[in-house]
Structure formats: C-alpha cells, structure tokens
Write a structure and sequence with these properties.
Blueprint lengths: L1 E9 L2 H27 L8 H14 L8 H23 L17 E4 L5 E4 L7 E6 L3 E6 L12 E6 L5 E8 L17 E6 L3 E5 L4 E3 L4 H15 L6 H35 L2 E5 L3 H5 L5 H7 L1 H15 L2 E5 L23 E3 L6 E3 H17 L6
Helix pairs in contact: 1-3, 2-3, 4-5, 5-8
Length: 381
C-alpha cells in the first residue's frame, strides 16, 4: 500500500525563488489546458494523452512553458483529468458537481514528480538531522529528517509545496510492503472488538464505556479571530497586509495541526488496541448544512477521522467496519426495541426490558453489534 512521508524543507533563497517561479508557470500551463479542455465540443473533449501531445505545440508558441521540468508540466495537465475522474465518480454517487475553476496567482502551490530520474537524495550531509534532496530544474535543498528518509530508488513520487504560511514541505510517496495480515474472524476474541460512537459532547464513546473528550480550541480560535481583525485593518496588497496574512495562515494552521495530531493519536490507539473497530458510516456533508452544531461538527473532522482509521487499520492489521448509523441511538442494545428520545436526554431507558445506561454507551454497543453482524462474527455480549 502507498505510504506518504511529509518533511519540512529548507530551500536557499535562489532555489526557493526558482521553485516558486516554476510553480507559477505550471499554474499557467494547467489553466491553459483547462481552457483547451472546456472549449472543445463536450462530445469530443481532449484526453490526457491528447493534451500531453499539445504541450510541445504550446511550448513552441509560449517559450515560458519550456522552463519547468517537462515531466512536471505533464503531471500538471494530468491532474486536471484525475480531478475530472473524481468529479465523475461523485456525480454518479448523486452529488451536485460543477466544473474545475481557473486558478489565480498563488492558488496553485505545488510541483510534483513521478519518475525516480527526476530527483536525487543525499544522506551524506554530515548532520543526521538533515538530508539533501534535488529536484529536476529546481536544485538542491535540505529536508529535516524527523524520521528516516528513504533512498531515491524507493521513492515513487515527490511533491514540493509552499504553504500559505511561507514554509516549504516535501511529501515522499513510497510503497509499504509486508503489512500485518488481519486476524481471522474465527480467532478474534470479543474483548478485542470495540464499537465507536462519534459525538460532540465527547469526541468518541466506546462500547467499553471509555470516553474521549472533544478538543478545546477556544484559545486557538480567539487568536485566529484577533489576527483576522488585524488583517481587516491593513491596506489590501501592502507589505504589512501580506505579512499579516501569513500570521492569519499560521493561526489557522495551529488549529488544523492540533486537530490532526489529536486524530492521529486516537486512531493509532484504536487500531493497536483492538482487532475489530466498528464505527458509524456518517454522511457528514448534510450534517454541516444544518445550523445546529455545524461549527462543532466541522471541528470534529469526522470524515478525516474515518479515513485515518481505515488507513491505519491496513498498516496495523485491524478490521474496520462502517455500519449504518440510523437507529443506533434509539435501539436498545439489550433487546433491540427502538425508543425515541430528544438530544438533551442523555440516558437510555428501555420501556420493554428495563435496560438503563448512558445514551452514547448504548449507541456504541449497537454499532459494535451491527459491525460484528456485517463481518459475520455474530453478536457481542
């Protein structure tokens, strides 16, 4: 399976300037390819390979297009067609999908390479904390090696990106071999299975009656709001405005990083502690379109949490099963009788069998039972 390693990159001023210039040229190539695509007859739109062939013609007409790596230019064009495939799949799943948009200056922020001949890695820097990396037509720069950096021939893709904070990062895509096999369902002990109810008052509540509180981001959001207000007072486009804009980006990044770190630790704990993790298959988009708790739901970032859980389950050999969430709160985990209850009622009390317990614990047990049923492993006790 694919595994992406992200590192902080430190580019010398001349290399950073050249990298950003190439990225802006790639943005123009991408925009021109997009215009060429949409100007064609809808019944005869150019394919990815058609537009690769047109690159030579475009370079002859606009010599500027020849300055970045030819391979990077092809990948910028290919990204348009990859995005269209993604949009087509979403359209088939019932989503309202529009068209790809023209990207203005500063909106296209990365360059990618997919052939080992386009980069080189030098581990002999004399400093274990850093490794040197070279990208075609851009040059050499240092990478902070917080984890082991693979040799060049083990890297399948390199993406160099400039964040809105002004910092550079490089992502190295590799293939992870020999991932642990998932245990046979017949060998799994019920004690090593867990149901996870996703919530707002607590981030998760498990069928083992363990709760993890939601992150308190009030201080981070206060800082973000202060920086936004300062930005509004600056003259648009001035040097002070640009500097303050980076401060706003850093404040926003602090929120994103805190949530992501929280999710990484939580998902790693789940997949290493249990052999089976059952979670709700939430459709988050319509939940965010309602006004009730929409902000808290967005901060929870449930979609990314589920993606991380699936990804890490493959790395650690854990079964993750997503179940239908409808009715998990209403049904009694003991007898299965459904009972309506408003959101403010935090205790489940079954009128049929008299079973009483915390509302979220009851839901987590139902999620586990549904997950085990889907896997064909029976019902938990």
């Amino acid at each position: 399976m694919k595994h992406t390693l992200r590192f902080r990159a430190y580019l010398p001023d001349d290399v950073a300037s050249e990298a950003w210039r190439h990225i802006d040229i790639l943005r123009q190539i991408r925009n021109h390819a997009l215009r060429d695509y949409y100007r064609a007859d809808p019944a005869d739109r150019p394919s990815e390979y058609d537009q690769h062939d047109k690159l030579t013609e475009w370079k002859n007409r606009w010599p500027l297009f020849s300055e970045p790596s030819a391979h990077a230019a092809q990948r910028a064009v290919s990204q348009i067609h990859d995005d269209h495939e993604t949009m087509r799949a979403r359209r088939e799943n019932g989503y309202a999908v529009g068209r790809l948009h023209w990207q203005g200056a500063g909106e296209f922020r990365s360059v990618s390479y997919g052939q080992p001949s386009r980069w080189n890695v030098d581990h002999n820097t004399g400093d274990e904390r850093f490794v040197r990396l070279r990208l075609e037509k851009i040059g050499w720069f240092e990478v902070r090696a917080e984890r082991s950096v693979p040799p060049a021939d083990e890297i399948e893709e390199v993406v160099l990106k400039k964040e809105r904070t002004g910092e550079w990062y490089v992502s190295l895509v590799t293939t992870v071999g020999d991932t642990p096999e998932k245990p046979s369902l017949s060998e799994i002990d019920a004690e090593n299975c867990v149901g996870v109810d996703l919530g707002i008052t607590s981030y998760i509540h498990t069928s083992d009656n363990l709760t993890v509180d939601t992150l308190d981001l009030s201080d981070e959001y206060d800082r973000y709001a202060r920086e936004q207000r300062k930005l509004a007072r600056k003259e648009h486009g001035s040097a002070n405005w640009k500097q303050q804009r980076r401060r706003v980006a850093r404040a926003k990044r602090a929120i994103k990083r805190k949530v992501l770190d929280y999710q990484h630790k939580l998902t790693t704990w789940l997949v290493t502690e249990y052999d089976v993790v059952a979670v709700e298959d939430l459709d988050v988009k319509p939940m965010l379109e309602t006004s009730q708790n929409a902000k808290n739901k967005q901060d929870a970032a449930w979609s990314r949490f589920l993606d991380l859980l699936e990804y890490k389950a493959d790395l650690h050999g854990t079964h993750v099963v997503e179940v239908e969430p409808a009715g998990t709160t209403k049904e009694c985990a003991s007898c299965g009788v459904a009972t309506d209850k408003p959101l403010w009622v935090r205790e489940h009390s079954c009128p049929a069998c008299g079973h009483t317990e915390d509302r979220d614990l009851n839901a987590a047990k139902n999620i586990l039972n549904r997950g085990l049923t889907q896997l064909g492993a029976g019902r938990s006790e």
